[in-house]
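Wait, can you check?
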Amino acid sequence: MRAGRGRLAVADYFGLVKFEHTVFALPFALMSLLVATGGRPSRRVLLGVLAAMVGARSAAMAFNRLADRDLDARNPRTADRHLPTGRIGVAGTAAFTLVSAVVFVLAARSLNPLCFALAPAAIAVILGYSYAKRFTPWSHLVLGLGLGIAPTGAWLAAVGRFAAFPLWMSAGVMLWVAGFDAIYGCQDVEVDRREGLRSLAVRYGVPGALGIAKGLHVLAVLCLAFAFRSAPAFGVTADLGLCARLGLAAMTALLVWEHRLVRGGDLRHIDRAFFTINSWIGMLLLAFVALDVYVA
């Protein structure tokens, strides 16, 4: 009986932080790591990056659930989450947040001094997102930045210095995430208005938010295109070839499909547009970049 309760508690914490959503940022961190090391990251760096990614994302999601617990309880879409229903308490969630943040900082420390020095700034960004929607309709970009620092962080873990390639990657991820989060936020527009929260949908309406999301995704593809090609005029240091560009074409096609699913403000397929398609994007792009690194 006690073992059963333990398994249930672990499953609850995995559900609390939506662990499966790690597929959004992790593939881009691994892409950056592969390019930085020529496909040969050391075991220490690989494990350190994985620990940092899991720790950072878990801390961010758990803190978000803490910050939004009262809002979630008043929103029919989120009222069945772990904190509003009491499946996990406030103290347990706070402890989980703290432990996850400590895991992230220790992982950064194990990598190199620069990663350790930047860890507090990263924590501030990923936790700060939870309050951004109280102040700005562009909170989607803050979330994007929180995930977008992953490629640069992985690069710094391997190389120990900044370069143009991971920065273009980070910009692309930030814009991509901001775009799909703006789409996802459209389903809560009425609740957000009632609660005094800000989003692109609240500020510009659902059609306006969808249009801005489309523009953000165009910019995201352009940033990744700059990263994937050798273009000295833009300072890119990596030289990825045909496979990476085919992956980018596949990403573009998936984004077109995503926007077709919600065109005209039709939000019936928003779960497919938000989770299914965007989880495919990262994994597909990682597969194509790996082909470029290891085969082409």
